[in-house]
Amino acid sequence: MHSRDQTIYALSSGRPPSAIAIVRVSGPDAAAALKALAGKLPSPRMATRALLCDVKGQPIDDAVVLYFPRPASATGEDVAEFHVHGGRAVLASLLASLSAMENLRAAEPGEFTRRAFEHGKLDLTEAEGLDDLIHADTDRQRRQALRQLKGILGDKARDWRSQIIEAQAMIEAGIDFSDEGDVPSELIAPALARIKRLVREIQEVLAAEGRSERLREGLVVAIAGPPNVGKSTLMNQLARREVAIVSPHAGTTRDIIEVQLDLDGFPVTVIDTAGIRETEDPVEREGVRRACARAAEADLVLWLSEADDAKAPNDSGAPVWLVRNKIDLGRSDAPGVHGPKTFAISASRGDGLGELISALVGFAEVYFGATEGGLIARTRQRELLQQAEAALTRSMVAIGDGEELAAEDLRSAAFALGRLLGQVDVEDILDVIFREFCIGK
User: Fold this and answer.
1) Residue 233 and residue 248: Cα distance in Å, rounded?
2) Are 403 and 411 in contact (CB under 8 A)?
3) Residue in 373, 367, 374, 355 with CA at minimum distance from that of residue 318
4) 430 — phi, psi (to 5°)?
5) Please, what sign has the CA dihedral across residues 224, 230, 231, 237?
6) Which of 62, 214, 226, 242 has its CA 20 to 30 A from that of 429?
7) Exposed, middle or buried, 37 (CB in 10 Å: 0-12/13-18/19+)?
8) For 172-219, what is each residue's pLDDT tens digit?
């Protein structure tokens, strides 16, 4: 493991070439590195033009530099930023100069954000929100991640934890003054009232039924059916580009092809699977097996067929819509004959695709539900809130058997919220969370 005393650097903007690139440096030697390359240390938080030169005095680039002294910086450490022209040669020269300096090293994924977390610039829920914001593919995902980054869940958790600790103090004071007549009841009654209120508030947050987590992960739609019915053509139409090979020969698709879509702001993963049929080809047979397994895991299955009397399989745990393709070839069009979730389309010509896409949007709206007010974005957050709620509920029951038991349950609830915020005993999950970040963030 690298030392936290070292100064780190990384490209914090997009891949070169680009008009402008930003290289960020954070740590105790950030100021020295900036002065060595720019010739002087600029005024704090003031963009300053400077000619960057390497250790041999050779010019690197005409750049803009900034200096953010600790603790008023993004990471809580001294931070320097180099805004240079985004050519590969410029960046290579700048990064080589930084790497040659003593006590400087390239940053690992998420290390800037981890240092910000360790210096109290953001809690763990905000760090997770930042990661979600970086990886947001749709506008709805962006808005949800921004709520996390603003610390709405973290603020609530801190307030809940503070109230739990106060209730715990009241109950423990009751234990200490148990020989003082009516003092314990005067302390325990308001503590119980506070606990009941906290349980209701946490239950309201948990009542979102995981919809915010669903928005983060996205809806999975599998296109399945016999070979050569137009699954790949439909996939290309939905993606509006050629992502799958279209061929008149059966068995062309032998592996699973996935494409990410933004469907009216909802994140949707569409899967094109191998044609399902009996086959002696071992490679195609493996493709059929994977297709069946992936369809079984999907949230919605579009079963494609050419026949008017086709029936969708009912062995999938997910809803199955029957989509009859190739109506442009003169087959009779009888939508709805097999139920309300039957569609007649021409994937090659586009007939009926508008109705199918509108139905998919409607399905996504129901699937995701009202996510705008949701605070929970990850399973980890939900599980810890459930642990806190369960411990609070136990404490109300345990108070009848003794204040000591109730106080212990309150300690468990406060501990769970501390883990949610990253304040206690989270070393085992920090590496998992921060390595999901990109380099330079």
Assistant:
1) 11
2) no
3) 367
4) -60, -45
5) negative
6) 214
7) buried
8) 776 655 555 444 566 788 888 999 999 999 998 887 655 666 777 788
- Phi first, then psi, for residue 67 (nearest 5°) are -130, 130
Residue 92, both tokens: 């290579």
Here the tokens at position 305 are 């067929």
Q: What does the pLDDT look like over 345-358, one tens digit per residue?
A: 888 888 888 899 89
User: What's the pLDDT tens digit per position in 71-113?
Assistant: 999 999 999 999 999 999 999 999 999 999 989 999 998 899 9
Please choose, from the candidates 411, 409, 412, the residue with its C-alpha nearest in 3D space to the C-alpha of residue 398. 409
Measured between alpha carbons, how far is 293 from 315 in angstroms, rounded to an integer?
11
CA distance 39 to 55: 11
If phi > 0 it is left, if psi is from -120 to 50 it is alpha, else beta; for residue 300 that is beta
Separation CA 296–CA 316 (nearest Å): 5
Whole-angstrom distance between the N-terminal and C-terminal Cα of the chain? 18
Tell me the two tokens of residue 142: 């962006």
Closest Cα partner for 399 from 184, 200, 159, 201? 184
Instruction: Tell me the C-alpha distance between 409 and 405, whole Å.
Output: 6
- State the Cα–Cα distance between residues 297 and 316, nearest whole angstrom: 8
Cα separation values, 341 from 110, 188, 302, 327, 333, Å: 45, 57, 10, 17, 15
- The Cα–Cα gap between 26 and 103 comes to 11
pTM of the model: 0.68
In this structure, are strands 79-86 and 18-26 parallel, antiparallel, or unpaired?
antiparallel
